[in-house]
Design a protein that fits this description.
The chain is mostly helical. Helix content is 65%, strand content 0%.
Length: 193
């Protein structure tokens, strides 16, 4: 028996909305943590939903729809990152000039991991530490410790063996532990080896 979705167009639209639209907020949070930019996160989510809708007939009903969307988003992020890495750097001089002619020129502008939906969940120090580690390790922390995916689901999303998931997660947690040791000590935690 074929478990792939097959619907009429109106039925397909309704089922797609039912299956995937409740995941919009979670998907945006994941995209924002990857891109560290609201506009890029919105573009990535929009691209993900377009691809998911286009390939909805390949989605197997009863499987983890969140993991399926996260995998599409992750692949889109990696493909876009590779595409941009091959292009020479571009500077919009009008934007730079407008900024330097504005009153905000003395403000320190840094990307902030926190958005309204997760503002009280992750503090500034943890956000900075998470943002400072390599994207592969950041992905492991986000998928496991923030989004709550199992190792098996992470392996499918990241398209790597479970052993690599465990290794990457262990290394990512070690990196965060090292980066947050002084912060934890300042809060009174014993961070002895």
């Amino acid at each position: 028996m074929d478990t792939h979705v097959s619907h009429t167009d109106s039925g397909k639209n309704a089922q797609f909305v039912k299956d995937f639209m409740p995941l919009l907020k979670s998907l945006y949070n994941f995209a924002y943590r990857l891109t560290l930019d609201e506009d890029d996160a919105n573009d990535l989510v929009q691209d993900t939903y377009m691809k998911a809708f286009r390939f909805y007939d390949t989605f197997e009903q009863g499987t983890n729809s969140k993991a399926w969307l996260f995998r599409i988003l992750k692949n889109s992020f990696i493909n876009e990152y590779r595409r941009k890495a091959k292009q020479p750097g571009k500077v919009d001089y009008q934007t730079v000039e407008a900024y330097y002619n504005s009153d905000d020129v003395d403000e320190l502008i840094t990307p902030d991991l926190r958005v309204e939906s997760v503002q009280d969940m992750i503090g500034d120090e943890i956000s900075r530490a998470l943002n400072s580690i390599d994207a592969d390790f950041r992905l492991a922390i986000i998928l496991c410790d923030i989004e709550g995916f199992t190792y098996e689901e992470m392996a499918k999303i990241l398209d790597i063996p479970i052993g690599t998931v465990r290794s990457r997660l262990h290394r990512a947690r070690q990196m965060l532990k090292e980066k947050l040791a002084n912060y934890a000590q300042g809060l009174g935690y014993n961070v002895g080896n």
